[in-house]
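Two proteins follow. First one:
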Amino acid sequence: MKNFTTKNSPGPVKNGIVMALSLTIIILIWKLIAMGVNSEIILPSPEAVFRDLLKIGRSPEFLPAVGATVARAVFAFLLAAFLGVVTGIITGFSKLADLLVRPVLVIIMSTPIISLILLALIWFKSGNVPVFATFLMTFPIITVNVNEGVKNIDKGLLEMAKVYKVKKWSILSEIYFPSIASYLTAAVSTAVGLGWKVVVTAEVLSQPQFAIGTNLQNSKIYLETASVLAWTLIAVSLSFIFELFIRTLEKRLIRWR
């Protein structure tokens, strides 16, 4: 059975071929629809978008815009991850803290993202709006997951560790960390995907000087649809890179566990 599964499971090369074929089909369908519409404003052709993509890549505003957006996303996420882990651990061990924090998390998660962004536009400078919105959207996800990880630690293992007088550091590294890690990795994966979308959306509305979202909005104002799609492809590609990075960290964490 093991040999059968190994032989029939798709390898990296086969997966790559399937993905390339899928992308080719999507581009062909896109091209056919663009030819039928026959309007560069409504739906530009793939080659027009690719041409604008190359143009944007050579433009002087490309690196500052991408760098600023990535910096905002990373800062907001690291802040949310740090405070989320700390808050999740505290609320996981303390029922009182959990009761105090839980309503706040529910309110944040229930509030529409557009409301948070509009409030941030009133309270902060344009460059800080995406950071604030992204932090608020990702912080509850990490906090709740870490909280669940703490609550689901095997109590039997903890009792056994106490009986055998296992050192506190060993209890932390061998029981607490592995238990929380699986919940944390799931939270991080979800938070990164959501956080990246929030950053770009907030930039579209707040219009900081250097930002992917600002360039998207400017392209839309001038009805440069090909440029809108080109900047969208840049944002999607960066999101894919972030996701790949997180997956790599997850695999290493699984090996450590």
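Second one, unrelated to the first:
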Amino acid sequence: MQIRRIPKWVYWCAAALIALNTYFFQELIAAELLFGIVFGSFLLVLLAIYIVGEAGDRGLGWVEANRRGMAAGARRQWGRVEAVSKKTFHRPHSESAR
């Protein structure tokens, strides 16, 4: 029996197929990582929205429980805001006004 010699192009084709399969595998891993990052970002945004909503609900519950004290404090602050808003803001004795 005679051993046939395998042409070089067969080796080149086998190497190309292996390289293509390796590249395809790398692309799949990269795509999975990108999808993971995107969905992780969505998860963080939804978690932040949930936390803000829960904080708002608990804050409203606390205000309802302490509404008398909150109302008095709000009236005092509103009076202070009105007093500040009635003042005129200008620089007395400005050099450019002379």
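SUMMARY FIELD: Residues 8-82 form one domain. Residues 40 and 48 are 12 Å apart (CA to CA).
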